[in-house]
# Entry
Amino acid sequence: NCLAYAAGEGSDPRTVGRSKGREEFEAMREAVPDANHRPAYHFTPPANWLNDPNGLVQWNGRYHLFYQYNPAGPFHDSIHWGHAVSDDLVHWEDEPIALAPDPDGPDAVGVWSGCFVDDEGTPSVMYTGGDDGDQLPCLARAEDDSLRTWTKAAENPLITEMPADVDVLQSIDWRAEFRDHCVWRTGETWYQIVGSGIEGEGGAALLFESEDLLEWEYCHPILTGDWRKTGPIWECPELLRFDEGSLLHVSDYSKVAYFSGEYDEAAKRFEPEDHGVLDHGVFYAPQSFAADDGRTLMFGWLKEDRDREAQWDAGWSGAMSLPRVVSLAADGTPEFSLPTELEALRETHHSFSDLTVSPDGTNPLADIEGDTLEVKMTVDARNVGEFGLVLRETPDGEERTVVRCKIRHREVVVDRSQSSNSDAAADSSDSMPLTLDEDGTFSLHLFLDRSVLELFTNDAQALTSRIYPTRPDSTGVGLYADDCEVTVRSLDVWELAATED
Ligand code: FRU
# Structure
């Protein structure tokens, strides 16, 4: 849990980096290159610390990505809102810090996660102020459409009383675990859910309503969970509506749990029909927004999976996922696709059809190398035991990451046991379930970006992993089959361009 880092290290975080403009951020990026690990086309902070995506919006055509940012160092401490803009979801430019803690305000400890609100044309954000022992909902309004300068509402904090009829969870540090916001409007009424937990029960998404975004009245939880299944606290709850139904997702410190079903507008309660995990790896605290063309785009924080000292030495920590287009299948399961805009990254293309991979050890991809790749394939998995893909392999095989498709076990495993020679990097395996289509095939789509590996099967299951090879020659790519020949019906590999260097 990142909140556990709340120690006062480093220089005065209230002023560091506050006035930074684009050039200074560029210089910071150059000062911490970390070429083997720092993603080339995923968004990362200029330097220092990044966690959750916040305030996502396409405003006047431009995409705005705000994020939890500590300008004082690569650790979670005094959190500001960093800001980047893009016209194409591919190239991001740093903007000055958007929101900073106010030592005399209700957000003295940090400006925590929150969402964008279009208040009849006035760009606004609802966020959590971390104060001495309190987590306090606050509002800020942008001064113009550049979304660069924000004025915090004089009425902040907006909610100070905890609901009387539920026993909101407390901790040693906090009088109430009560944070993160998802705001929407139905008719003339504003609603928001806040992440929380109920003593002895489990995580909760608490519903509030308001006529003016400033005065909020408590309704009830739209859903509560069982602490044994989804933890005692829900962070970053988000309710998404689709024609096929609704999706509520919450982050419970270890995973992003989703519930799909119906949000009953009259009863104001979420009726879950199905549940699952949005991503089986390090993807956390995601947030979404509706783009102008109607797509629902989701970003998540990709946590580091190397120790704190290694993050300190690298000078930066945390990456943003690629944007994922989220939809709901007819049976209520979430599906992902990647925005076509990302195709702009594609450079050299290697294409194969009906490729036979033999168990004799011949590697049909021996000519390909790279640490920034997109791979897309459809595999005929009938009668196959294990088949897989090797990435970031050194010529002598000392370092390598293996994506094992264990067909018999209906599982995909990212085997990191040899990913890195460094003890600072996690070496446990990550896994996700694998389903085969009726014709015995499955599809795999993956993005490798130096230390980031985003993996999708059948556009439905996702697993994001972090790997930290130490050797600069860890750029080999391979395919293998374990016990019998495997036919890869189609295989496309693209070497991808860098947008950050
Ligand atoms: C999730 C989270 C949020 C909180 C923010 C603080 O990662 O803990 O609950 O608002 O990060 O940075």
In short: The pocket of beta-D-fructofuranose is lined by residues 2-3, 51-52, 68, 79, 112-113, 128, 179-180, 235-236, 285 (CB under 6 Å).
